[in-house]
Design brief:
This protein is an alpha+beta fold. Helices cover 46% and strands 16% of the residues.
Length: 283
Amino acid sequence: MGDHYVPQYYLRGFCNGFGRRLWVYDKKDARKFPTQVKSVANICGLYPPELEKYLSEEIEHPANGVLDKIRNREPITPADKVTLSNYIAVMWKRVPEGKTRLKERAPEIAGGMRIALHQYIDEVIARNPEKQAIAQRRKAEIDEILNGFSQNPPEELWHQVIPVDRTPLMTASIATMTWRFNCYDEKPVFLTGDNPVFYFSQFGIGNPESELSFPISSNINLWATRRYDILEGYFPTNMAIVKEMNRRIASITARYAFHAEEEGWILPFISKKSWQLSRIVKI
């Protein structure tokens, strides 16, 4: 069994009756199948041992109790919000799609490094004109290294950005949002997937228009906003909001979606190529 990029304890919330079996919907191979949570959302050798230990002991274990509280619809404390904010922020980074996002940003990162390093070398040349030739060679070497970085950033860089202390503002932003838990009890309705943290990228998570959603279980979905005209807590929701939350998950699913039951609509749903997503205005 490999390293789980979506934790097993989290996935149990999407099993029928909080068991250990759930349905997997694979949009790449156009198939669906039931399996155990230990058998999905994992890749051998995905993380180095010290990172796997950190994720288990410092991120997952503290958050499991908060997930239990929410699944039992118990009040959560400000400290619980911070704990689960850490979990959500790390979840966004630890999944394979997090590595893809970092790779997409590699040219931008390399460009910033290139400007800074070239500027430093230019300052050295200004003070030491006789070093012009060697400085130009150093610039060429830097450019070669950064070009390679842009095309294929090392996996170690992804591992380094996963811990919560590398993105403290992200955790703080999530923790200070208004948290409302949408609840639907008639049957299991909420999907989750291999990339379960959604927010509107054009707004980020620190702006007044920001929204973040995160499925907690088959019947509970976290909706976090910058709205202060609504109450925090657990509230019954309707199918319009359920469908919007599931559209959000489907839109960011890289390959696998997970659900408590076998449903015929899920595979074609997650396989759609384009999505029309909406912010929630009325509740």
